[in-house]
Design brief:
Shape: globular
Number of helices: 14
Oligomer: single chain
Structural class: alpha/beta
Radius of gyration: 25 Å
């Protein structure tokens, strides 16, 4: 039996815009009209690379298929003049829904490849359709939440990795915390045990002790090699620099693939609030910036795959070959390395015991739930640490901000300094280090030691958020010249060739046609706006390099 949704998406809303006659006429020139009968399916859950449909006559139900413990449910219905589809049409994700014809009529069908070309070239149509797709995805995050179910415990590192991946990829899902009575009952109801946690149920697939990679493969977001796959540009890393490189590459006619070992967003996605980025006077979160950049990349036809870890790069007679951790290889004419830099772990004996459950390198809603208004410690003296302290204090908990230097003014923007100092729940410890971690399964206290006096104190802490140091993500790139800290050297920082060959182009590393942008590059500013600019500028050099045979 199929349950019906209690509402229809209102005509004229963001999720159901009205297509005017001119738009419908343009779409008709790209597709074919088909007669459909009651009971026909336009696509099924699990299908990939969906065609685009406009209903010309009749009615189509969008159905969330039955899952363990949940009956099939109609989540939307589309009538004459309305169109089907949401973001999975661009991401390549397998559909989580089925489109069922419930009243006979006609539909306009546009093949997926043709539809993607329309999105990249028709600004007016793409603006309307993208807005609708984004709004529909937000509705699906609630309406289709039982399609993918994640079972785990709050504060567990493996469960958090799955949730973070699902959140960054905007994958509709339901989180069940088995630390609660309701969660334990839900786990028992589906016939599984805590030994299988974290557990993923996705339609007919069961993933015990699941990883983000397995989840990506199940929903169709993992990289899948296709015979003859070759790209003009492969971007390694999907932070601000990588997404910018992908957008500029694809929008300028290069076949472009963007890979990330974790999920899109990089360090920027870990930020709770960004207020000094041009064009956003009210500020935005790192997650919002990532979503906008990802949608923009998909609009221009960027292929994106995550998690996809690159383990090696080599040159051969035909170009560049990238080896992936799962054994696949990708051929490219050029590469932009935008793998950024990671925050440093503190050299404390039991750090690994708490990392991922009580120790974090990000302050998004997911990590903040672990704190739940309890005291926390933030380590670092730059903008990321200041933003984290303000975010956590704003949720109602006391925050100890531990800064190694003698003041917070040295590396933190003035607007953040003023807010941190004025906040009644933030307590700043300058010239100090965290020297001890205490607790059993979860962190309970940390020891903070003053480098001026040598005195130590134990501070209550349900979690520690670390934003210190920077380790470049370039250890996999053998043979590339780097500085003493491992950041990649480019253009003017490289010696001029003495064999008469061309010198390195702007942002080019010591490896031909391999460029670096963003935090992984020596001399970069370590700011989001600078990273975006470097990603775009690197693509200008890619064009110059590819023009030279």
């Amino acid at each position: 039996m199929t349950e019906r949704a209690p509402f229809r998406v209102p005509v004229g809303s963001a999720a159901n815009p009205v297509l005017d006659r001119e738009s419908l006429h343009r779409l008709e020139s790209f597709g074919t009209v088909e007669e459909v009968a009651e009971g026909d399916t336009l696509f099924r859950a699990g299908d990939e690379n969906l065609d685009f449909f406009v209903v010309e006559a009749g009615r189509v139900d969008i159905v969330r298929e039955a899952t363990t413990g949940s009956r099939a449910r109609v989540v939307a219905e589309w009538q004459a003049g309305e169109f089907l589809g949401e973001l999975s049409m661009l991401t390549g994700q397998a559909s989580i829904l089925t489109a069922l014809v419930v009243e006979p009529g006609r539909v306009l069908r546009i093949p997926n490849a043709v539809f993607k070309q329309i999105m990249a070239t028709d600004a007016r149509l793409s603006e309307t359709l993208l807005g609708a797709f984004r709004a529909r995805r937000r509705l699906l995050m609630a309406a289709a939440d039982r399609t993918v179910q994640l079972f785990g415990r709050e504060g567990n590192a493996g469960a958090l990795a799955l949730r973070r991946y699902a959140a960054r990829m905007e994958l509709p899902h339901r989180w069940i915390d088995v630390g609660t009575e309701a969660g334990r009952e839900a786990l028992e109801a589906v016939g599984h045990t805590e030994a299988e946690l974290p557990l993923v149920l996705a339609r007919e697939t069961v993933l015990p002790n699941a990883t983000p990679r397995q989840l990506a493969e199940t929903v169709g977001l993992a990289f899948r090699y296709r015979d003859g796959d070759s790209f003009d540009l492969v971007v390694v890393g999907a932070g601000p620099a990588g997404l910018a490189a992908g957008i500029y590459g694809a929008s300028e006619g290069l076949s472009t693939l963007v890979l990330d070992a974790l999920a899109p967003g990089g360090q920027a996605a870990a930020s709770s609030r960004i207020e000094n980025y041009l064009g956003f006077p009210s500020g935005l979160s790192g997650a919002e910036l990532t979503e906008l950049g990802l949608v923009q990349a998909l609009k221009f036809g960027v292929r994106l795959s995550a998690p996809a870890e690159v383990t090696q790069l080599r040159h051969d007679a035909d170009g560049i070959v990238l080896e992936l951790g799962d054994g696949d290889s990708i051929r490219a004419r050029s590469v932009v390395v935008a793998t950024g830099a990671r925050y440093r772990r503190l050299p404390l004996d039991n750090w690994a015991q708490f990392e991922g459950g009580s120790i974090f390198f990000a302050t998004t809603e997911l990590e903040a739930r672990t704190v739940d208004r309890r005291p926390s410690v933030v380590v670092g003296g730059a903008n990321s640490a200041g933003q984290a302290a303000l975010y956590l204090a704003g949720l109602g908990g006391d925050v100890a901000l531990v800064v190694r230097g003698p003041s917070i003014e040295a590396k933190m923007s003035t607007y953040l300094v003023d807010r941190v100092v004025a906040h009644e729940r933030i307590h700043v410890h300058v010239s100090s280090d965290v020297t001890g971690l205490h607790g059993e399964d979860q962190l309970e206290e940390v020891t903070v030691t003053s480098s001026d006096t040598g005195e130590s104190a134990r501070i209550p802490a349900a979690a520690l958020f670390c934003f210190v140091g920077a380790q470049p993500g370039a250890s996999w790139l053998a043979g590339a010249a780097a500085d003493g800290s491992g950041f990649l050297l480019t253009d003017v920082d490289l010696p001029a060739p003495d064999d008469g060959s061309r010198g390195p182009l702007p942002f080019e590393t010591s490896l031909p046609r391999v460029f670096a942008a963003g935090d992984v590059r020596h001399g970069s500013m370590k700011r989001i706006a600078a990273a975006v600019g470097e990603g775009a500028s690197a693509v200008a050099s890619v064009h110059r390099a590819l023009a030279v045979r």
